[in-house]
Amino acid sequence: MQWEVVIGLENHVQLTTKSKIFSGAPTRYGAEPNTQTSPVDLALPGVLPVMNKAAVERAIRFGLAVGATIATHSVFARKNYFYPDSPKGYQISQFEDPVVQGGSLTFGFDQNGEFVTKTVNLTRAHLEEDAGKSLHEDYHGMTGIDLNRAGTPLLEIVSEPEMRSAAEAVAYAKALHSLVVWLGVCDGNMQEGSFRCDVNVSVRPFGQTELGTRCEIKNLNSFRFIEEAVNYEVRRQIGLIEDGGKVLQATRLYDPDKKETRSMRSKEDAQDYRYFPDPDLPPLVIAQQWIERVKSEMPELPDAMRARFAKEYGLSEYDGLMLTQSQAMAVYFEAVAAKAGKDLAKTAANWLMGDMASILNRENVDIGASPVSSSQLALLLKRIADGTISNKLAKEVFAGMWDARSEAENIADTIIESKGLMQISDSGALEAIVDEVLAANAKSVAQYRAGKDAAINALIGQAMKASKGKANPAQLTELFKQKLAG
Fold first, then answer.
1. For each of the chain's 486 residues, which pLDDT tens digit applies?
2. Whose CA is closest to 71, among 40, 96, 98?
3. Could you please report the per-residue DSSP string of 354-399?
4. In this structure, are residues 185 and 54 in contact, taking their beta carbons and an 8 Å threshold?
5. 3-class DSSP state of 116
6. How far apart are CA 17 and CA 201, in angstroms?
7. What pTM does this model have?
């Protein structure tokens, strides 16, 4: 039997407010346990929550970015459950009337060697408070409770179950991560728990429209873990069904050491949480003027920037998607294009998606912290364009620029000169090399003259070797063609 995978994501995005969603306690990461709490966070008798306006504005900003409807009237509810790290015995969240309704997210990813784009619809995004944290280590066999996170503002973003593979789920999560960081609503630090992912996975026979029984994998905090967890869970569910068993709805955890999911608890449904409107919080009313003000303060969004890149620089859809994966990369690209000139924009894009991306990944460095500045890279691209250096040797210069970590704008020129990498474009010098190569490679000469055009590549390769990679390839090719035609 052929199986179809059905995946939906719920992402918990910690908002970049200085204080908590219903109290004035700070949200700084890394403080000593229980030093960033207030009577509201501790649920002391008689306290009342007060809505954080900055959290609402970040929710509006996200909703506008994904083309969602911003609810002018939304309600907070109590989601009842009993965990030691939830001092109230309930979580303040939104259920029937979320602040952000609908919307969609478009992203690109590699599918079997082909770059494809996909749009996933969003169900909703709602505001809620985070719980505290249970600490199980270094407590002499006991569990400690740290309530610093209790009350931290979250925006829970829920997708429709429209993804069909782990690759799609990871690409969606990366695109969402990039967007919330781009908008400034989240710092995106997955290690600190600012961007967490719950993945709902089910399988069904191809052609079946009814959804299979889903299992939710909680609190995945890396893209690699999302991919591994989904792939394991898909194999587990298919194997279970094919062996005559039945998938039971459950909440599961992923063990990255064993690379497997394991059951945490049976999956609760909405009625199990006994939602009801929070009597301490009035409805959240968002005036249209407020929405318009937030809209006027929005940065240029990735979709709009991709369209502009295509119009201004002639970049492809693929180029645009790659360059707008992060705001920092897009800003860097535009700075290079401004310095090098629009005619070198495509070259700049190729370098950023190629050599620059490769070294950033290898060194685990963000483009914003690159030791090669945009103006330095722009000068290198100019030197390729004006024939000072070949594209091949430019890679060596780029590596030298990265290692030099110099602030000098002309570092490329310094390295080219100090290493003697200047391209040979003197026609006399090149002609001498060509004559020498032709004399030493009679077989390739005969093959070319017999109609085997590819034989010229071997000759050019020998000439490049003789010049230690410094010969101008275009001039070499033209010289060989002239002499072979004689």
1. 699 999 999 999 999 999 999 999 999 999 999 999 999 999 999 999 999 999 999 999 999 999 999 999 999 999 998 888 899 999 999 999 999 999 999 998 888 888 899 999 999 999 999 999 988 876 677 888 999 999 999 999 999 999 999 999 999 999 999 999 999 999 999 999 999 999 999 999 999 999 999 999 998 999 999 999 999 999 999 999 999 999 999 999 999 999 999 988 776 666 778 999 999 999 999 999 999 999 999 999 999 999 999 999 999 989 999 999 899 999 999 999 999 999 999 999 999 999 999 999 999 899 999 999 999 999 999 999 988 888 888 999 999 999 999 999 999 999 998 887 776 665 676 777 777 778 888 777 777 777 777 777 888 788 777 777 777 777 777 777 777 776
2. 98
3. IIIHHHHHHHT--GGG-SS-HHHHHHHHHHHHTTSS-HHHHHHHHH
4. no
5. strand
6. 32
7. 0.84
Going by the DSSP 8-state scheme, the letter that residue 409 receives in this structure is T
Residues 318 and 328: their CA atoms lie apart, in Å, by 18
**Cβ neighbours around 276 below 10 Å, total:** 12
Contact 216, 15 (CB under 8 A): no
Within 8 A by CB and 6+ apart from 171, the residues are 107, 108, 109, 118
Q: Which amino acid is at 27?
A: T
Distances (CA, A) of 161 to 158, 206, 475: 9, 15, 56
Cβ neighbour number for residue 138 with a 10 Å cutoff = 7
